[in-house]
Known about the structure:
By secondary structure, the chain is mostly helical. It has two helices and six strands; from the N terminus they run βββββααβ. Strands 1-4-6 form a three-stranded antiparallel beta sheet, with no helix packed on it. Strands 3-2-5 form a three-stranded antiparallel beta sheet, with no helix packed on it. Strand 2 and strand 3 form a beta hairpin. It is elongated and about 80 Å long.
Amino acid sequence: MFRMLPGIANGRMIGQVGYLPPHPKLVESNRNIFRIPTDAMTPGQPLVLAIRVWETSIGGPDRGGLDEVPRIGDARQVTLWRRLESHYVVSIVSGEIAELYGNILTALAGLGLFLLRPKERAYLWWGLSQLLWSLFIVLSIWVNFRTSPYFSSVY
Length: 155
């Protein structure tokens, strides 16, 4: 999961995620698409793909490398795969979206009750805590759709 991926097709760079040493940038990235230019392919000749991986010194099972087998296809196939992938991500976050709506409703209820009974501060704290939790959920949903840098104190 924590990897550097310069992708090369027949000796030509087609994409990269993060940076390799001497100036490393660790990136947690999913669902990347790299286009292979038509002039990088020769009819009747094999297409040679190379992926350079830097195995980091950060412990754990996800120290470097691919998480799944790369998918190769024409633009129509890749577009279809991308659409299916986005449906999959939405299905993953749909529970979080439902939880987000519930938290916003309980936050509004808590703040509304506080406005009706300002002496009972428990309603205020409940509403504020639900708003903060809603913010956390929004961030966790956002991360599913973004490439994000991986920060660590271990190098």
